[in-house]
Every structure is written in structure tokens, then in C-alpha cells.
Design goal:
10 helices; Rossmann fold; about 300 residues; four-stranded antiparallel beta sheet; five-stranded parallel beta sheet; globular; alpha/beta; Dna Ligase, domain 1
């Protein structure tokens, strides 16, 4: 089997090493890779979809594994599948679970998947009216991809309005801002590997996210994590039955079954597990940029 991995980070390095240990992987390429990956595996620059396809056809690539979310959001997996190249990654439409917070939240609401109360706003006048209906603190999220850092927690109405204005200007007001209830509890992450119907979940992980001691700083994209998390195991069945299975079924109903790896960013609340957000293949723990507090 010949494998091409798309990506350049530590995630792709770990995936490359895993493929490299397989007896059926006869040749492995990584694009673009990095200096560390290049010590052990062949790296090459394939900087657009057509170059990737041409390389796959020329070299007889059997499987493309897409690590980063951006190429998936841009439709790389769909493009390769259209040309009969096998890909391990969700489609562009299925990727909306991460690339559009509005899509993900609307889907969860329609299918009774437990998550925080929310409202999308698209201009500052609407934002002020909606913010008045939410208790403080309140969570504000830029719609779309934000590399794990598109989240702010406002502790006053004035601060919330300022953040909304900044996020709307940053996005040109076109995709809106998600105003979300602040969930209290403790946060945990879980991966699911799925063909769109059946699935296998992994061990739980928990990350260190806020910048300062005692959870006083702003959210980051993750500053380390540990695994397993024994305290989360009693919630696995509820997470699979009340969250994962309904979401996979909903995506099938939407006509875009989710295949590949789905990251579930979760908050364990007094009412049970709730979804903070979803991420695409093997996003590192901590990318959810959640409204988490680690205090009961």
C-alpha cells in the first residue's frame, strides 16, 4: 500500500510513524511535512489540489490521509474522491460540523443533542438585543474555522458588545457570531473513528487550556493534555448513545454522512455530558476553545 499524508504538524508526524510501522505500507509520503518528519519519511511540496491528484495518479497512491482541517474545508477530500482516489477524511459538507458553528448547533437542536443554549447574531444591533437575554458570563464564538482561538468569554454586557463588534468586523459580518450559554462543569475530549454509521471511540483526554493559573486567563488552542481520564469513563455510554449516534444519524439524514475521525469536545455538567463543539480529524485536545471551567 502507498500512502500520502497531507499536513505538516506533530499530528501528521505521529500518523506517519503509525503508518510506517504497518507491514502493508510499502511507501509513505507526507506533504508538505516538516524537518522532523523528513528525517524518517519522504516529504514533498504539493501545494494545490491538482498537484496532489497528479501525484496520486502518477505514483499509484492507495490512500490519502488528510490531517489539517483547512484542506478538508476547501474540498480536497471531495475532489480526490471524484477522481477515484481513496481518502480518509470527511467530505466538505460533513466538515460543516466544525467549519460552521451555526450548522452544528442547528443540527444538534433539531435532533435533541445536549448542548449549550445559543443564538446566532449577524449585526451589532441584533447582538445587543440577544445579549440582554443571556446570563453572564456569556460565551462568544466566531463562526467558521478559528484554529482553536475564536472564542471569548465576556463577564459584562459592555465587554460582550465590544467582543461581538470585533468578531463581526473581523468576519465582515457575513458569517455571524454565536452567542452561547456558559456551561459549568469539567471538560473532556473523545475521538470517534467512523464510517458514517458504525464507530469506535478512543480513550478520553483532558487538556490544559487557559493561559494563567486558577483558570483566570484567556482560552488558548491547548497547552498540553493527559490521557486517559478515568473520571470520564462512567459517561462513555451516555456520550455514545445521546450524542455520537444521533449526530451520525443526523448527518446521514442531511445527505452528508460523516466518515473519518470526529473529535467531540464535551462538558460534563450536573445535567450530564453536553457538546461544546466538534472538530475534524485528530485535532489536538484543546482546540475546542470552549466555555470550560474546571471547577465543579
Amino acid at each position: 500500500m502507498k500512502v500520502l499524508i497531507i499536513g505538516s504538524g506533530g499530528r501528521e508526524h505521529a500518523i506517519a510513524d503509525a503508518f510506517g510501522r504497518s507491514s502493508i505500507c510499502e511507501k509513505l509520503y507526507v506533504s508538505p511535512g516538516n524537518a522532523g518528519i523528513a528525517i524518517e519519511h519522504e516529504c514533498l511540496a504539493l501545494d494545490d489540489q491538482h498537484k496532489i491528484l497528479s501525484f496520486c495518479q502518477k505514483e499509484g497512491i492507495d490512500l490519502v490521509f488528510i490531517g489539517p482541517e483547512q484542506p478538508i474545508a476547501e474540498g480536497l477530500s471531495d475532489f480526490l474522491r471524484q477522481h477515484k482516489v481513496k481518502v480518509f477524511a470527511p467530505s466538505q459538507a460533513a466538515a460543516r460540523l466544525e467549519t460552521s458553528k451555526a450548522f452544528a448547533k442547528d443540527l444538534m437542536q433539531r435532533h435533541q443533542v445536549p448542548t449549550a443554549r445559543y443564538q446566532m447574531v449577524y449585526d451589532i444591533t441584533e447582538a445587543k438585543a440577544v445579549l440582554a437575554e443571556f446570563s453572564l458570563p456569556v460565551v462568544l464564538k466566531a463562526d467558521g474555522l478559528a484554529a482553536g482561538k475564536g472564542v471569548e468569554i465576556a463577564h459584562s454586557f459592555e465587554q460582550a458588545v465590544t467582543i461581538c463588534r470585533e468578531l463581526l468586523a473581523q468576519k465582515s459580518g457575513s458569517t455571524g457570531v454565536l452567542v452561547e450559554e456558559f456551561l459549568k462543569g469539567w471538560e473532556v475530549s473523545l475521538f470517534a473513528i467512523t464510517d458514517g454509521r458504525d464507530y469506535q471511540t478512543t480513550l478520553f483526554a483532558q487538556d490544559h487550556k487557559q493561559l494563567y493559573d486558577n483558570d483566570l486567563g484567556p482560552n488558548t488552542g491547548g497547552m498540553g493534555a493527559y490521557c486517559p481520564v478515568a473520571e470520564a469513563e462512567p459517561y462513555r455510554k451516555a456520550i455514545e448513545q445521546d450524542i455520537l449516534k444521533p449526530v451520525l444519524a443526523a448527518m446521514r439524514d442531511e445527505g452528508c454522512p460523516y466518515t473519518g475521525v470526529l473529535y467531540l469536545g464535551l462538558m460534563i455538567t450536573k445535567e450530564g455530558p453536553k457538546v461544546i463543539e466538534f472538530n475534524l480529524p485528530f485535532r489536538r485536545s484543546g482546540d475546542s476553545g470552549s466555555a470550560a471551567t474546571f471547577k465543579d
